[in-house]
Structures are given as C-alpha cells and as structure tokens.
Amino acid sequence: MDDLFAALETSEPARQDLADGAVLLRRRAVPCESDLLEGVRLVSSQSPFRNMVTPGGFSMSVAMTNCGDAGWVTDRRGYRYQGNDPETDKSWPAMPSVFRQLAEEAAAEAGYNGFSPDACLINRYEPGARMSLHQDKDEKDFKNPIVSVSLGLAATFQFGGLKRTNPVAKYVLQHGDVVVWGGPSRLFYHGILTLKDGDHPRTGHVRYNLTFRRAF
Ligand code: MD3
Ligand code: FE
C-alpha cells in the first residue's frame, strides 16, 4: 500500500517547488471552493467582467475584473493599478474575507509571512482564451509574492525565466490549485495556453484565476 501512495505522490505531490521561490499547493483551495465562487459572483455583479484593450490596441481574450483597494487595468494609455473601476467609475468591490484569508495562509505556507494583498485580479477564461508570455511588473515592490488560485477547467501554464527567450516548463493547473510566486520566480515570464473546451462540475465551460498582489 505504501508503494501505491508513493507512486501517487511522485506524480501529484500536495506541495511542489516549481522554481526557486515558487511553490505549488495542489488543491489547496478546494475546501473553500463554494465561498470563492460566491465571491467571484458577488464581485462581478458589482464590477462586471470585461475584455480590456492592450496599449497596442488588441482586445484581450481573457475577461477580467478586480476587487480590493487596487485593480489592474489596461487601455490604450498603458497598464496600471487604480483604485476605481473605469467601467463603473466607483471603487472596486471590497476583497471578500475568504479571498484574503486563503491568500495570506497560502503565502505563509510557502514561506512568505506577512503578505497582505491590496489587489485581487480575477481572470475568466472561456474556451479559446489565452494569455501570452508576460512578466507581472506593474506592482511597486517585487519583494512581495503573488498568490494565484485556479478554479474550474484545467489549463496549461507555461513558466520560463527572467528573459522571454528562456526555455519554458509546462504545468497543468487544476481546480483548487494555489501557486505562490516569490523570490527569484517573482519576475519570471509566464502564460496560459489556449483553453480547451470542457465541462467542470462547479464552473461549466469556464476557468477562473484569482491573483493576489500587493500593488501599492
Ligand atoms: C509567475 N495569470 O493574471 S496565474 C496574470 O492563470 C496571470 O490567469 C495567469 O499571469 C492565469 O498575470 C497565470 C500564475 C501566475 C501568476 C502571477 C505570476 C504566475 C506568475 C507572477 C510572477 C510569476
Ligand atoms: Fe501574470
């Protein structure tokens, strides 16, 4: 029996270091999945998902909204964080306490005590949506990690190095997977391959990704 568990563990360990400073906590968010999805519904009822435009003029295939004191936006003027939702002209919805608690606990489990996010970007992928290789560098202090939570359909994530041309490793991110990105991995290039169609019991044909950041 030990061998069976050992075999399962080598393919799917609960915790895995993806790179220096990057820790995957598999299925860590499953116990609070219903509360998280309720939070996504509440936030998006106040600040709806929208397909933002890049500075280059392309509409993103991933639909986004935010909660917290800061929200990430892009338009023809550039990428930035701001306190107001440009679509509603109101503050972003408050960060639900279950979001904050999960992000802070996961960060601590990965070795980043004292992480206190002020922004949560919520990405919604439908089949065909993708996010090309990029760095997250609009935040003030890169010493703070980023915590990501995946819900719904699985997606293939690619993760390279500090240069766009570095070779990439691929990982499948499943429902409930949490990844904490800090230390040297904080500025690594990463992206999501085109989402394949599917049907998830909790989200239907959708994948959500929540990324918790310290923006200001
Ligand atoms: C590695 N989101 O919103 S989560 C993003 O699944 C973003 O929606 C993807 O990249 C998604 O910016 C990937 C994994 C992730 C998030 C932030 C990172 C990986 C990261 C920051 C630094 C390094
Ligand atoms: Fe990113």
Rounded to an integer in angstroms, the radius of gyration calculated over CA atoms is: 17 Å
Query: What is the name of the CATH topology?
Result: Jelly Rolls
Look at the structure and name the CATH superfamily: Alpha-ketoglutarate-dependent dioxygenase AlkB-like
- The low-confidence parts are none
| Count of helix runs | 3
Termini separation (Å)?
50 Å
Task: Sketch the topology as an H/E string, one letter per element.
Answer: HEEHEEEEEHEEEEEEEE
Describe the protein's architecture and organization.
By secondary structure, the chain is α+β, with helices and mostly antiparallel strands. It has a single domain (2-213), classed as Alpha-ketoglutarate-dependent dioxygenase AlkB-like (Jelly Rolls, Sandwich), CATH 2.60.120.590. The protein has helices at 2-11, 33-46, 97-109, and strands at residues 15-19, 22-25, 63-68, 71-75, 78-82, 84-85, 90-91, 119-125, 131-134, 146-152, 155-159, 169-173, 178-181, 190-192, 207-213. The strands form four sheets. Strands 1-2-13-10-15-8-3 form a seven-stranded antiparallel sheet, covered by helices on one side. A four-stranded antiparallel sheet has the order 9-14-11-12, with no helix packed on it. It has a two-stranded antiparallel sheet with strand order 4-5. The longest helix has 14 residues, at 33-46. The N and C termini lie far apart (50 Å).
